[in-house]
Backbone:
């Protein structure tokens, strides 16, 4: 049992300035504190032992209580294009030869340059475009037609790659290691990376291929966009036209369905669904000279949350000049003056820390220390915002 210096001297009578205190009083004050610390340490060791036993049980079901859920801050899913694409696995499906490759090339260019796309805010970063049905000459002609000589070093192309589960995983890992701030990987088309000999259209196979790419996307907090085809038969739900089984849409984080009334026409409609954004419909028109898709209008504008006064109050504690604030939960509640008790405020921030970072550029951390809980707010420059490659990790507070 570890006893600090104060506890070691507490059992002996004091001298000098402390001579007026009695030995009896000192003993009464120190022994219960020591016993309480011993009991806490013993309970901590018992809990640690129970956790080790649970971890060793292959059939143990890990659960989280609602209280534990609220006491944990999770990193939010990073936006690649605000309101349109987020980190995760997405499918862009459409009939052959309707302009899907020009569309994904346009998306890739905007993310690699950081230029807004159709008024949507873009988070700039390296892009890998696996154009597996093209060659470099065709890519060169396509990009020149679209953007002339305004090139970017952050857009990378490949025209050949391995299959998923047979080398592609390692190739993507290597690319991300070389370009750790990668935001988007485009695979055009999905059929080109299916495992050799695999069942192309079973639910299990479709679900597994998206699941593997989703795990990769979540691990590195980037978006994997798979270009895929639709079937010819009409369906009651337009997304049922996506070639394959419902396993594709069921596992994907989002889907974009591109359709044209007339193949030779310049107009297209894209239905957008996803877990991290509101469903919407985009009406596009292609410039016949550049083949660039321009937004004509949207249906169902993305919902924007109203301002959050609690987050605004907390965010005022830091700035570019005063980049960090640190204190106890009680001190935070007092300084922020957000009208919430300390316990309620930290739970609120655990849940809303993603929005605090995205809208106010303030990183929130709540850690247990020997001296008690410590809250740290850090101002993050907008250039450094977003995910740091650890999406899915969390801090238990």
Residues:
């Amino acid at each position: 049992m570890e006893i600090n210096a104060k506890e070691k001297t507490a059992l002996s009578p004091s001298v000098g300035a402390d001579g007026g205190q009695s030995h009896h009083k000192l003993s009464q004050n120190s022994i219960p504190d020591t016993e309480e610390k011993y009991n806490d340490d013993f309970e901590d060791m018992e809990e640690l032992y129970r956790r080790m036993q649970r971890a060793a049980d292959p059939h143990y079901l890990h659960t989280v209580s609602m209280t534990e859920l609220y006491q944990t801050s999770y990193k939010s899913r990073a936006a690649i294009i605000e309101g349109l694409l987020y980190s995760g696995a997405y499918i862009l499906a459409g009939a052959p030869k309707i302009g899907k490759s020009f569309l994904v090339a346009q998306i890739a260019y905007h993310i690699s340059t950081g230029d807004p796309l159709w008024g949507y805010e873009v988070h700039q970063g390296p892009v890998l475009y696996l154009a597996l049905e093209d060659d470099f000459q065709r890519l060169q002609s396509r990009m020149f037609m679209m953007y002339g000589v305004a090139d970017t070093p952050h857009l990378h192309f490949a025209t050949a790659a391995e299959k998923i589960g047979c080398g592609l995983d390692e190739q993507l890992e290597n690319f991300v290691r070389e370009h750790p701030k990668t935001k988007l990987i485009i695979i055009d088309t999905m059929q080109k990376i299916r495992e050799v000999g695999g069942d192309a259209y079973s639910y299990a196979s479709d679900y597994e291929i998206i699941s593997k790419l989703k795990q990769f996307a979540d691990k590195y907090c980037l978006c994997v966009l798979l270009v895929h085809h639709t079937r010819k038969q009409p369906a009651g739900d337009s997304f049922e036209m996506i070639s394959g089984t419902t396993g594709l849409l069921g596992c994907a984080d989002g889907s974009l369905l591109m359709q044209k009334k007339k193949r030779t026409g310049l107009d297209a409609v894209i239905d957008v669904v996803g877990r991290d954004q509101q469903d919407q419909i985009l009406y596009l028109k292609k410039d016949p000279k550049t083949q660039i898709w321009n937004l004509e209008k949207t249906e169902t504008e993305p919902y924007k949350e109203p301002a959050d006064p609690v987050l605004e109050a907390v965010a005022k504690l830091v700035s570019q000049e005063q980049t960090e604030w640190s204190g106890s939960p009680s001190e935070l509640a007092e300084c922020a003056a957000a009208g919430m008790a300390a316990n309620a405020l930290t739970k609120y921030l655990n849940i809303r820390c993603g929005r605090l970072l995205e809208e106010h550029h303030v990183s929130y951390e709540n850690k247990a220390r020997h001296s008690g809980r410590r809250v740290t707010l850090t101002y993050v420059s907008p250039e450094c915002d977003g995910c740091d490659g650890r999406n899915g990790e969390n801090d238990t507070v």
Remarks:
- The two ends are 26 Å apart (CA to CA).
- Confidence is low (pLDDT under 50) at residues 1-32, 385-397.
